[in-house]
Amino acid sequence: MIEAFITNQREKKEGVKWRPDYHFTAPYGWLNDPNGLIYYAGWYHLFYQYNPKHCEWASMHWGHAVSKNMVTWEDLPIALTPDEAYDDDAEGGCFSGSAIEKDGILYLFYTATQHENGKVVQTQCMASSEDGVHFKKYADNPVIKTPPEGIAEAFRDPKVFSYHDKWYMVVGASVGNPELDGDGRVLLYESEDFYHWNYKSSILESRNLLGTMFECPDFYLLGDKWILTCSPMKHPHNNKAMYCVGTMDFESGQYQVETYGNMDQGFDYYAPQSFLDRYGNRVTIGWQNGWLWMPWCDGFGPTSTENWRGALSIPRRVTLTESGQLKFYPVEELNVLREKISTLLQVQLKENQKIELPTNRMNSYMLKVMIDEREVGAKEIRFGLMSHEDKEAVITIDIAKKELIFDKNNADVYGRGTVSCAVRFVKHNLELLIAVDKSSIEIYINQGETCMTFNVYPEENQVKCWVQSPGGTGTVKMIEVIDMMNFMEVVKTM
Ligand code: FRU
User: Fold this and answer.
1) Predicted local distance difference test score (pLDDT) of residue 352
2) What is the domain extent for residue 318?
3) Which of 57, 166, 249, 294 has its CA 20 to 30 A from that of 416?
C-alpha cells in the first residue's frame, strides 16, 4: 500500500514568502525537470530531477510524489539514487526520463551519466517496481549503451510509449557540440521485447534553425495527429518548449511536421513532459525555470534561503485546435483548491484610478478576466500584481494594437524584462486567466492559446493586486478573483 510510505515532509512554515501554495516544489533542496509522469494503479506519480542535499544542481536523484488528483501531492521516498558505476557521477547522476506500465509493473527509463577518460557518457537505463514505491535497477543496464553514429555525447531523456503492439522511445540528442554550434535531433528507437532497442530514425532535425540540442523530447498521439515536443538549447528565437503537430509513418520512421509553435512564451518554462490522466486526457507539466543558456536568466533566484529551489507548473491539459495549434490550460482538478470566489461584473474604471481587487490570500489567487473590446472604452487595461507602491509586475492589454505586455522590470531585483504577444478577441471578447502563486505568475490567454510563465520574487509587503485603465475611463466585463489554498491544507482534510 502506497499510503504506508507517504512521508509528510511539507508542513507549511512561517516566514516563508516565496514557496508556492499550489505549485509543486521539492520538500528540501534542488528540483528541475518533471520525470516519469504516469497514472498508475490509482495514483498519479510525479518524479522529478532532485538534489536532496542542497539547493544547487548536482548528483541527480529522482524525487517522488503521488496524488489522487494531480494537485494535492504527498511525498514518497526517493525513487532513484545515483549509486551504480554507470550513473553515480557527481556532475551527473540519474538524469531525466519517463515511466510506463507493463504487465502491472511500473518501469522507469532514465539517462545514466558518467565520465570516462574525461568525457561525458550518457546511456539509457531502466528500473522497475512492483509496489510503485521501491525501484530496482535492471541488472543488464544500460539498455542503450551508445548513441547512433555521428551523435555527440549529449544523448538523453528517454520517453517510452507503445503503439500498435510495439514499444518506442524518443531520445534527445545533438550532432556536434551541444553547448556551442551543435545541431539538435530527436531520435526514435523501437523494441519488440522492451529490453532490446534498435535505432530507427531521426524524427526532428534542427538544420541550424531550431537549436543545438533537443532536451526532454516527448511524442504522442492527440486526435489523429502526432505531437512532438522538446526543449531546445539555444533556440534562435528563445522557444524553450517547442511543439510540432504532424503525421508519423512508423514503417519508414518519417515524421512530417505540419504546424509548430511555442508551448509557453514566458521566461520560466522548460522541459515539459506529458502523460494521460485517468480519463485519457493529455496533460503536461513543465519546470518553472530554465538553464543559464537562456539569455535572461540571472541565476535561479533567491529561494535557497528558504531551503528549496525549483517549482513545477500547474498541470495543463493539452488540446488541438482546428487550425492545428495546441492549447495548454490548467486542469479542472485545480478547483479543489479554490477557497473563495468574488465576481465583479462591469467593473468601471476612472481615468488613472487603481482599483484594488479583493484578494484574501497573500499572493495566492487566480484572476479570470473577460474584456469586451466593444465596451472597454479605454485604450488600455492594466493589472498590477505583487504590488506595493511602485514595485509590481504589470500586465497591459493594448486594445487597439491587440497586444498583451507582461513587464517585470520593476517587480523584483532578481531578473528583469518584458514579453509581449498578440491577442485575439474572439467574438469581441478576450479571456485571461492569471495565476499568482507566491513567486510565480502564469498567464493563459483565451483558454491557453498562449501561455506565459514567470518567476518573480516579491518582498513581503508586495501583496496588492489592482486594475486600472490609464488615460481614460474604462469598463472590464468581468473579473473573478479566486483565492487559492495551499495544497497541504486540502491534503490534511482528505
Ligand atoms: C533538462 C535537463 C535534461 C537532463 C536534466 C539533468 O533540463 O538538462 O536534459 O536530463 O536536465 O538534470
Assistant:
1) 80
2) 14-330
3) 57
Q: Is 33 a catalytic residue?
A: yes
Q: pLDDT, tens digit, for every residue of 1-11? A: 888 999 866 66
Grid cell locating 320: 488541438
Q: Are residues 187 and 154 in the same domain?
A: yes
Report field, pTM of the whole predicted structure over 0.90: yes
Instruction: Give the CA radius of gyration of the chain.
Output: 22
Distance (Å, rounded) from C-alpha 134 to C-alpha 450? 39
pLDDT at residue 255 is higher than 90 = yes
What is the atom index within ligand 1 of the atom nearest the CA of 287?
7
Note whether 253 and 127 are same-domain residues.
yes
Specify whether 412 is located in the same domain as 460.
yes
- Are 205 and 89 contained in the same domain? yes
Whichever domain contains 363, its CATH number is 2.60.120.560
C-alpha cell, 220: 504522442
Q: Is the dihedral of CA 443, 75, 104, 130 positive or negative?
A: positive
What atom in ligand 1 is closest to the CA of residue 96? Answer: 10
Q: b/e per residue, 37-72, with b = 16+ CB within 10 A? A: bbbbeebbbbbbbbbeeebebebbbbbbbbbbbbbb
Domain identity same for 235 and 258: yes
pLDDT at position 193 is 96
Q: Ligand 1 within 6 A of 216 CB?
A: yes
Residues 419 and 442 in one domain: yes
State phi, psi for 111 to the nearest 5 degrees.
-95, 125
pLDDT of residue 212: 93
Interval 102-118: pLDDT, tens: 999 999 999 999 988 88
pLDDT in the model for residue 294: 62
